[in-house]
Amino acid sequence: MWQVEVSDGVNNVATAFTFTTEPVAPIVSNPVPEDGARYVPVDLSQLSFHLSDPQGDLMDYTVETSPDIGSGSGFGVGEGTYNIDVSNLDFSQEYKWFVNVTDGIHWKHKVFSFQADHNMVFDPFDGGWQYRKKITIDHTLIAGDLSNFPVLVSTVDSDLGDKAQDDGDDILFMDGDGVATRLYHEIEYFDDSSGELVAWVNVTDLASNQDTMLYVYYGNPSCCSQQAPEKVWDSEYVGVWHMGESSGNIIDSTGTKDGVVVGSPDYQENGKIGNCIYFDGDDVEYFDIVDEIYKFNSEDVTLEIWVYFVENRNMNEPPLYFGDNDNLPSLAIHKERSEGPGGSAGKLFSHNRFSQEGDIAWSSDGGDTHVGHWIYLVGRFERGVETSLWINGQKEPDAANTCHNNNLNGASQFLARIGRAGVGGGSYMPNSAHIYLDEVRVSKNMARSGAWLSTSYNNHDDPSSFLSFGPEETGP
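The structure assignment produced for this chain is given below.
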């Protein structure tokens, strides 16, 4: 940038100009696999990349990999796509590959990475794991047969603390003993000193008429991370935020969209599940997710959240809100302000609001009923059928209205706002709710079934009753 300042002795004028220099070094682009790719097949046979030079000069290049799966070079080449043969990839291994290219004067050095796919069917004892424990899921807490259900595994186990890797990378879940199938999992929290583990495991089939058995393996000091967070959550989940961070933005486990924190909320260790986030209700504190994936058309939608209302405030408190800056149209879960309209003071409600009236589902109880304890709240929007409110895994019996097929693409600036609603609406819109928040989820194209929601509550509310661990077993 450069600036010109001119003065005639009375008036001053300053004008800034910018320019960008032309690139001179060769350009390396379009890597295959993409940089940061995961689940790359172990039978990968080539790496590829594109080379170009701004001046059209001929180039020399070399490629190396770490760990070594192949290398290559080329001399006096022009613009084009080039391939390097590779072989003998290992399951779950993380790889880096390095491209060095020169036009004889200028150099470019690029580093790319990827992770090979996991081995899905095998015997972990043959793969270097030393210990395992059987996990039994109580079928009486499964409200109906379910598929690809994310089970919360929460325990404090000194064996894990003593024998697993410090970061828990070697913790592995399988659907049986011996040769079995891997179950994808995500670790939300692991403390190697106490052995405390908070993990989510995608259980392929949960039966309501018989207990489900799975196994956790650990004690493999040489393996890479066995986690696959985005594969724990089925394709209908378009946002899962555990609130497990200790600072910074809120990470989305589906890999879709992280939350951008506004203000200075507190990160607490006393959440419903692991850590949580706390908004004091006085300052402007919330987090936003702004993305076109949340411009719902006529899809079914399910909003889930664990929330702890600290007090019964004289304002509307929205834990979870989707809408524009003018509050219409919108989907949301709210707690009504204390002087609420029509005798609704302190009641919970979900709304599918395409007009000022919209489709609203109210809770049966208000006042202080919903204050001072954790609540599992779900707003379920089945287009053309029903807007309903679920509290602690149960549908509110009188909380249902027709759910119209409104088009939320009409929103001028669509927001996914957690802890605060839109910026308009006067006293109707608080600066921030006074709440603790944990485990926020959004499903699109899916009105989660009653069995799914009831089982989720049973699992989250009391994980030690939902599943139990057997004694430690050692490998042969």
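Interim note for the steering committee: Confidence is low (pLDDT under 50) at residues 424-430. The helical segments are 158-163, 229-232, 450-461, 463-466.
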